[in-house]
């Protein structure tokens, strides 16, 4: 099982979910280039101008580790990255799990993605503003993990290590992408997990993804927000477990 | 603070003030009229409590918010994405988030830039129970940050512009590829110091004066940057102009010396010149050095040796002492011109030196492009990839099977 994190975080997003599959699967976690513990020197702004470059990275991991019959679990934008990888090399993947996916964030005629282009500009401003704060005050308080201080330390370091320029470009690529047409080309059986009250990917978007994938089922989680892998790891893991067993 | 702490207060007045504060600051006022907004939410974001300061800041009524709105719903759409992708995960994983910059959309539709700190409280069984958020009005600070950000972006843009300008200037001073001299194998290599963002002082030039009559120049102008580039351009053009009427390299160097002295520069310059002439299918070389390392001549099967005698640096004295030394080139011979960025490349107090130079030349003798490339590679590797000085190399080889010409 290959777990891919979404925009804004790193593989730590899976820390409460991935371990539950270790008894039955070879579990592989990674950080997209520019995030977490990745080597930022491998980031080439000219290459990472579309999600396909990230999909190629996923395939490279599969080849390098000689993975086959892969269950790919992608959160947020990585759902589409997984879809692109599966279209490119259907033989490598056994199943896809899309957690809070959206093939298009921006509204377009009848399609409701939930955002407008100016909202994305807002997001880029918000990123710039926050990275500005982070770079000048690199001493984030670590509270709430008194029993496991090493946890806070590790996470804070990886959060702060996100390169602002890369995050900015990844945000543009993510939120301006349109992968609606790619969904129809995915032949791999897919589970779509959608939360209630997800500010980024509303339920209608989850239904759109299900309806446009040739072989997909949608499971609506009771969890709220965009990150059920963090807010409701049990519910998320159970839904994935049921799917991979079936 | 308890009574025990109060007793430790130094003065009578301080103790009185402490007791007054204890009486006046009732917990409700402490919360409601705190100098920052307070919002408490359920783990799903639903607002369950907000203080008066927050309501004043945002213009909302308590009944609009409590139980009805989530904190994220008060943000701009872009801010909501940031909230979901950064802020909420951070809160979940770290239990806190600090100094997050967000924009709240107020009741009247205006935007309020805020900085928020938040902590996630967990219940006894470790489940998230409540998120407490402190909200600070950051209007002025954000304006200042925007200016800073703008200044930073402008600085980065102008730096990129300067680097591009330096590269362009460099390319006009250094031929991107040396010209082809019929019957000779010519190659050059160049690498500016450090990251190449500044124009270097090293230069070379290879040009034809007449059929079978060529000049090869390599030099080093003191310093770097635009000032050095101006002198480099002057030196190149003077050499080109002088070579038309003057035949001997020493005479050309003397002209250059005069021009430099009359120019409004106090930059020194060192140059090695070689005049290459072809007659009856045979090439001859005449070399002269103005304070520059002598070119190395390698006869087929022999060890490299200096082709000319040392001479005076240019741009200092009214007259210079230089010598013209000639040699007839035979098939298999080669000449290497270089700047001191090669021999004086340093590694922990050790120089690259002439011995290593000779080694590279000997092992690549006969193929100009091999020599130039290998020399550049070795010198850069010697300095662990970060050359502290410019490096310039020109290699000329007479092919073994000359046949034509």
TrEMBL record, chain B:
<protein>
    <submittedName>
        <fullName>Serine phosphatase RsbU, regulator of sigma subunit</fullName>
    </submittedName>
</protein>
<feature type="domain" description="PPM-type phosphatase">
    <location>
        <begin position="185"/>
        <end position="398"/>
    </location>
</feature>
<dbReference type="GO" id="GO:0016791">
    <property type="term" value="F:phosphatase activity"/>
</dbReference>
<keyword id="KW-0378">Hydrolase</keyword>
<feature type="domain" description="PAS">
    <location>
        <begin position="44"/>
        <end position="75"/>
    </location>
</feature>
<dbReference type="Pfam" id="PF07228">
    <property type="entry name" value="SpoIIE"/>
</dbReference>
<dbReference type="Pfam" id="PF13426">
    <property type="entry name" value="PAS_9"/>
</dbReference>
<dbReference type="InterPro" id="IPR001932">
    <property type="entry name" value="PPM-type_phosphatase-like_dom"/>
</dbReference>
<dbReference type="InterPro" id="IPR036457">
    <property type="entry name" value="PPM-type-like_dom_sf"/>
</dbReference>
<dbReference type="InterPro" id="IPR000014">
    <property type="entry name" value="PAS"/>
</dbReference>
<dbReference type="InterPro" id="IPR035965">
    <property type="entry name" value="PAS-like_dom_sf"/>
</dbReference>
<dbReference type="InterPro" id="IPR052016">
    <property type="entry name" value="Bact_Sigma-Reg"/>
</dbReference>
């Amino acid at each position: 099982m290959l777990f891919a994190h979404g925009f804004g975080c790193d593989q730590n997003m899976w820390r409460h979910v991935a371990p539950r599959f270790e008894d039955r699967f070879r579990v592989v976690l990674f950080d997209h280039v520019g995030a977490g513990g990745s080597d930022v020197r491998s980031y080439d702004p000219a290459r990472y101008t579309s999600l396909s470059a990230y999909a190629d990275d996923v395939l490279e991991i599969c080849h390098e580790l000689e993975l086959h019959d892969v269950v790919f679990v992608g959160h947020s934008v990585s759902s589409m990255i997984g879809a692109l990888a599966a279209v490119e090399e259907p033989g490598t993947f056994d199943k896809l799990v899309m957690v809070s996916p959206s093939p298009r964030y921006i509204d377009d005629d009848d399609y409701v993605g939930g955002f407008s282009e100016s909202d994305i500009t807002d997001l880029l401003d918000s990123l710039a503003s926050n990275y500005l704060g982070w770079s000048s005050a690199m001493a984030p308080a670590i509270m709430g993990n008194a029993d496991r201080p090493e946890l806070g330390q590790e996470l804070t370091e990886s959060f702060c290590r996100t390169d602002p320029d890369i995050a900015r470009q990844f945000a543009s690529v993510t939120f301006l992408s349109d992968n609606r047409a790619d969904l129809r080309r995915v032949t791999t059986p897919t589970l779509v997990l959608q939360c209630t009250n997800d500010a980024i990917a509303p339920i209608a978007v989850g239904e759109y993804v299900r309806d446009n994938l040739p072989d997909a089922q949608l499971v609506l989680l009771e969890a709220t927000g965009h990150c059920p892998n963090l807010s409701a790891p049990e519910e998320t893991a159970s839904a994935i477990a049921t799917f991979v067993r079936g | 603070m308890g009574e025990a702490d109060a007793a430790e207060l130094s003065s009578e007045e301080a103790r009185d003030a402490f007791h007054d504060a204890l009486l006046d600051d009732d917990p409700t006022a402490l919360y409601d009229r705190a100098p920052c907004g307070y919002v408490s939410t359920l783990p799903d974001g639903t607002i369950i409590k907000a203080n008066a300061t927050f309501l004043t800041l945002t213009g909302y009524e308590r009944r609009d918010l409590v139980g009805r709105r989530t904190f994220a719903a008060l943000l701009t759409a872009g801010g909501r994405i940031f909230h979901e992708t950064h802020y909420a995960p951070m809160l979940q994983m770290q239990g806190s988030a600090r100094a997050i910059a967000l924009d709240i959309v107020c009741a009247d539709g205006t935007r309020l830039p805020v900085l928020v700190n938040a902590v996630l409280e967990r219940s006894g069984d470790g489940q998230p129970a409540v998120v407490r958020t402190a909200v600070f009005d950051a209007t002025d600070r954000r304006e200042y940050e925007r200016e800073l950000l703008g200044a930073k972006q402008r600085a980065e843009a102008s730096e990129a512009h300067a680097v591009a300008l330096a590269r362009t200037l460099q390319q006009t001073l250094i031929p991107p590829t040396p010209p082809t001299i019929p019957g000779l194998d010519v190659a050059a290599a160049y690498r500016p110091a450090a990251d190449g963002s500044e124009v270097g002082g090293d230069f070379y030039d290879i040009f034809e004066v007449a059929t079978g009559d060529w000049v090869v120049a390599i030099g080093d102008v003191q310093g770097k940057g635009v000032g050095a580039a101006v002198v480099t351009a002057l030196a190149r053009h003077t050499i080109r102009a002088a070579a038309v009427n003057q035949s001997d390299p020493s005479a050309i160097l003397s002209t250059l010396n005069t021009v430099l002295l009359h120019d409004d520069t106090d930059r020194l310059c060192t140059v090695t010149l070689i005049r290459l002439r072809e007659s009856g299918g045979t090439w001859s070389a005449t070399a002269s050095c103005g304070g520059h390392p002598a070119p190395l001549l390698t006869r087929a099967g022999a060890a490299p040796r200096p082709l000319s005698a040392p001479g005076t640096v240019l741009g200092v004295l009214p007259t210079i002492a230089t010598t013209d030394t000639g040699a007839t080139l035979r098939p298999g011979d080669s000449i290497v011109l270089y700047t001191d960025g090669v021999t004086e490349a340093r590694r922990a107090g050790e120089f690259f030196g002439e011995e290593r130079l000779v080694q590279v030349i000997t092992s690549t003798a006969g193929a100009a492009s091999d020599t130039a490339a290998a020399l550049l590679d070795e010198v850069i590797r010697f300095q662990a990839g970060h050359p502290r000085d410019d490096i310039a190399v020109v290699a000329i080889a007479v092919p073994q099977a000359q046949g034509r010409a």
